[in-house]
Amino acid sequence: MLSILKNYFLFIFILSLSLDGKAEINPHEFIDSKAQEMVQVLKENSELFYTDRDAYEDKIKVIFEPIIDFRRVSALVMGKKYYVAATKEQRAQFIEVFKNSLLDTYSETLAQWQDQKIVTDFPESLEFKKQLNVKQNLFTSSTFYPIKYTVRRDGDEWKIINIVVNGVNLGLTFRNQFRALADSHDGDMNQTIASWVSDAGFDE
Asked: What pLDDT, in 10s, does the model give residues 52-100?
């Protein structure tokens, strides 16, 4: 009986360590690892953007797509008024349209910046809140661009819910764009979604 209890408490102890490990994933280290992985892909495939755009974007998508909460971001872009007005099918449709448009914008922007290097700002002390900001600087051959990711804990993972690049708030930019587009179509969600085009207008 004593042996069984010892094994039971040992199992609980190991399980608690495992759970604590998952709960204490450092979002700064996580985002940094993905950023460095992306820089490596960009350096190795710099010409692919011009020769095979789809293949280039697929390489970016493999890294970028799993770490963004597209459902939450899409809802924020639509805004409460239009999100409530949209049907379940329309919301799902916009998620896919927005996902592709964001990946297009992000990959096109990165392709314009040559000799990239990303440096993440690691805070000396970190409180693991439900939501926080991860700051980076993207250095090119001629200048640098500050990047701020707003990340939110999603179970055992961290997901990006907004990005600010060189002072341009993508979430706000896209929300204003969606509102203007919806207004121009008198609130018709089908036409709004069909007309969606994203262009954050990043230029070096």
From this structure: 888 888 888 888 889 999 999 999 999 999 999 999 999 999 999 998 8
Contact 67, 158 (CB under 8 A): yes
Per-residue confidence (pLDDT) for residue 115, from 0 to 100: 67
What span, in angstroms and rounded, lies between the C-alpha atoms of 24 and 6?
A: 27
Contact 143, 204 (CB under 8 A): yes
Q: Based on C-alpha coordinates, what's the Rg of the chain?
A: 21
pTM of the model: 0.77
Residue 19: partners with Cβ closer than 8 Å, 6 or more residues away: none
Tokens 């990959």 sit at which residue?
A: 107
Name which of 142, 136, 135, 137 is nearest 113 in CA terms: 142
DSSP for residue 121: -
Question: How many C-beta atoms surround the C-beta of residue 139 within 10 A?
Answer: 15
Residue ranges of the domains in the chain?
A: 31-194
User: Cα separation of 177 and 11, whole Å?
Assistant: 53
Tell me the CATH number of domain 31-194, given options 3.10.450.710, 3.40.640.10, 3.10.20.740, 2.60.120.620.
Answer: 3.10.450.710
What's the CA gap between 2 and 106, in Å, rounded? 59
Q: What is the pLDDT of residues 30-49, one digit of tens each?
A: 999 998 888 888 778 878 87
